[in-house]
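Progress narrative, Year 2. Work on Peptide ABC transporter permease from Rhizobium sophoriradicis advanced from sequence curation to structure prediction during this period.
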Amino acid sequence: MSRLQRLLGTWEGMAGFAILVILLLFGLLAPVISPGDPLRIAGRALLAPFTDPAFPFGTDRLGRDVLAGLLYGARTSLAVGLAAAFSAMVFGVCVGMAAGFSGGFVDEALMRVVDAFQIVPSFLLALAFVSTIGVSTPIVVFAIALGAWADPARLTRAQVLAIREQDYVASARVIGMHPAEIAFREILPNALPPVLALSATIVAGAILTEAALSFLGLGNPNIATWGSMIAEGRSVLRSAAYLSVLPGAALAVTVLGVHLFSEGLGKALGDDGGRAA
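Result:
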């Protein structure tokens, strides 16, 4: 049975996968469903949901289409979350691999750097970085990754420390395999599954951090984001609660989907690990 079949064989994996696929389709089809700039003034301001077929979810204080904002916000959240998680995973795995495989002084030095990054809350680190450097999508991605790479680095190191003592690794050394070949062909593939299960959690954290930064006005002002939509609706929360409730619900559903997918992925990889043992 393949990993995908095991993933979809759990209700968490199936539900999370379905939610993420739907969100991905909405994000990809946003230009088709709602063509044009989502930040443009499209109609009368504060039009309530389901009162005009042209604006199913209504309009905001400036007359911008809420549905367009939700669709393009899905693109932003998924793109930033995936990019930040990928960057954090790649850097974290490289650092953890170097620390665990090298040992000695290199291991101690790299782990002290990891400790330093883990002491500071990731959101505060991203907030300080964006506030200092400036606001743009690449900077937001880098700032989020900066606070997320330490966990995969520590987990990768722990996996490498356990795997490098296995008999097949010792056999590879005996037959004269190059250390780099041992690291990337024998150790890394076996160390990755638990780290990959962690990646979904990093994506969820990255999506929440991006929304929080946008809510505080530190996101890219030239693109639609769920965090900025929630912030926009604060001033009319009593008279037009949908302006904050709809993007908030979309954000909650997305994080729930990522969490369920992570649970299913962890069970699938755990089953795989049990069979391999």
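The longest helix spans residues 66-102. The radius of gyration is 22 Å.
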